[in-house]
Amino acid sequence: MAVTSAAAEAVGVVWDQAAPLEKSKPRRVRVIGPAAFSFGTVFAGLRSLIQYSDLLYVLSVFRLSVRYKQSVLGWAWAALQPLALMGIYTFVFARVTRVNTGGTPYSLFVFAGLLPWIFFSSSITNAVHGMVAYPSLLTKMYFPREIIPLSYLTAGVADFLIASLILAGLLAYYHVAVTWNLFYVIPILFILGAFAAAVGLFFSAVHVRFRDIGLALPFVLQVWMFATPVVYSLQSVPARFRKLYLLDPIAIAIDNFRGAVLYGRAPDARMLAVAAGEMILAVTFAYAFFKSSEATMADVV
Amino acid sequence: MIDLKLNRVYKKYALRSDANVPKRWYRGLRRRSSEVWALQDVNFEVQQGAAVGIVGHNGAGKTTILKLLSGITSPTQGEITIRGRLAALIEVGSGFHPELTGRENIYLHGAMLGMRRSEITRKLDSIVEFSGVEKYIDEPVKRYSSGMYVRLGFSVAAHLEPDIVLLDEVLAVGDLAFQAKCLDRISALRKNGATIVFISHDLASIYRVCDRALLLDRGRLLMDDTPRAVVDAYQKMTFADRGTMMERELDVERPAQCIGISFSGAGLHHPIRTGYPMIARFAYHAAMPLRDAIFRISIYWPSGYLCAQLTSEASRPGLTIERGEGEITFECPLLPIQPGLYRVDLVIESEGRELDSRERCATLCVEPGRPAMGDFYIEHMCSIRRDIPHTNCTSANQS
Known about the structure:
Chain A is an all-alpha fold. Chain A contains 13 helices and one strand, in the order H-E-H-H-H-H-H-H-H-H-H-H-H-H. Chain A has helices spanning 6-10, 40-51, 53-67, 77-96, 106-133, 135-140, 147-173, 185-209, 212-226, 239-245, 249-262, 269-294, 297-300, and one strand at residues 29-32. In chain A, helix 2 crosses helix 12 (269-294), helix 4 (77-96) packs across helix 7 and helix 8 packs parallel to helix 12. The longest helix of chain A has 28 residues, at 106-133. Chain A starts with 5 loop residues before the first helix and ends with a helix. The model of chain A is unreliable at 1-23 (pLDDT under 50). Chain B is of the alpha+beta class. Chain B has two domains: 2-239, P-loop containing nucleotide triphosphate hydrolases (Rossmann fold, 3-Layer(aba) Sandwich); 256-366, Coagulation Factor XIII, Chain A, domain 1 (Distorted Sandwich). Helix content of chain B is 27%, strand content 34%. In chain B, the strands form four sheets. In chain B, strands 5-6-7-3-8-9 form a six-stranded mixed β-sheet, sandwiched between helices. In chain B, strands 12, 13, 14, 16 and 17 form a five-stranded antiparallel β-sheet that branches. In chain B, strands 2-1-4 form a three-stranded antiparallel β-sheet, covered by helices on one side. In chain B, a hairpin with a 5-residue loop joins strand 12 (290-300) and strand 13 (306-311). In chain B, helix 3 (102-112) crosses helix 4 (117-131), helix 3 crosses helix 5 and helix 4 (117-131) packs across helix 5 (146-158). Chain B is globular and about 75 Å long. Chain B starts with a strand and ends with a helix. Mean pLDDT of chain B is 82; it is low at 395-399. Chains A and B meet through helix 1, strand 1, helix 3, helix 6 and helix 13 of A and helix 2, strand 4, helix 3, helix 4 and helix 6 of B. Strand 1 of chain A pairs antiparallel with strand 4 (77-83) of chain B.
């Protein structure tokens, strides 16, 4: 190596000894043009997302390790939030007024609804605020931006799993018989997670430009929660409104999640298909929208 | 092969990104032109293995080009083609999270740059060693000094094995030893065929690193030539309006004052050229007699480093100066410095005390004279002898 300055020798590093640089790899050609909304970006975006899949993993782990740093209770917070809400809703809806739960203890009933709802709402909230929490990430570095909201979603999955342990404990405590239909929660949660990703991507992309999203989000989610059978059952909704509920994939997912866990009920296939269809449409649109606005996020954040 | 290509690239920024919509509409009604073109019709290509420097004033569009190339933002019009893996060393370390340890940040930062975890694990030791922060690698980076921060950031990026490297002022940070390491690493990358795009206000390092340079001004590409030609043009553009000494009121209270400086070649109107004589005239005013006086002219590289000094002490130590105005003449039989524009400082000292100093008060413009590469022209002769056995020549060399 010809260029080895005196100063480099002084600190004892000579580049000859460094790992030889790999040569003659096939090179990828990228063409960057003006941003435009197109569904074609979805495939290109997914391809680069796969390339950066390790970043999604590292960032998700990092969300979890940073979130509970310098907190005494640490991971217990993942379970405390749904437990506290369970307590207050149980007081309101089992003591103050009565909700028809089909014979299940209300606390268990509401916990089984709160669990997926909190996963959905906190993933979206974190994704939207996380997008602008470190503006220097947007203005100084390039990586597929959707990794930021998605990493909050995967961190939300971890919180969901921790809180699920509490749910399992409650099921055992109330001697609820678990059936094979429990496995239906897997497609149900997949639809829920994908829909959370779609909503999170869409809102976080808009939030970069218009911070109104962050301000509106708490009450939008509050209204959405009461419009979803979380603290009450879908059966207690008057039949003429029930059709409207079935347009909301979150309502379908939460009602069927509870059905599969508490009552061992298999979901209605047609309902699930509708939710899955809506989910695919929403994810495709939200991702294409995100990709089109990604290109100029650094300029407006 | 062409690694980078910018084809009619335009980039527009909205000046007010005021997200308050009614206010914006109101303003939009009143005045339309709330946007600025950071780049206009920029076209260039970079061959594989080339090192291209970009110079220009602040706001000329240099950083915008790097942001476009690295994919941080996209052009308003036009097309950019990039062939290969690209590493952007723009404000390295900005992806670090203060709460995480150095080691965790290496993984985070590496992954952001597009490295696989397995690749990072394989290179971890080398990254840590290069950064020189071994002792603190398991401490949160919030306890790091800013130098350690940047060193770790550069170290991660330097291990990316990129095909194309974008550098933005990274060499301005870190101590001298680390800067030397960075330059070595860049040379190593170049030897392996990496393409380099380099932005710096340190014009000397543009010479050192690049073999081609671009001059940008207000978003337009003005020049695409050798580094020396581009740096000269850039300096002429910068200093054109400040060729002479800056005016200052004569202050009779001061014991001594610098009142002027002029440079010329052998004759008064001769140009100043490398390898030819130069005369500098230093005009002063002394309000009282000065003992042990020293007059000093410091000549600075464009980068701000001291290049050379002319001082009366060298030929006339213990100089005594009468009251009143006068002129000290410095005669250089041969000017060894390279063509270019230099900034000049003037100092008057007496009995070890600085009586007056004028910093960067004038420019010295050296024109091409005798051909010279490198930093200086060394006066030399050569002669030819023939019919000597070849062995003689080599043995003389080795002894």
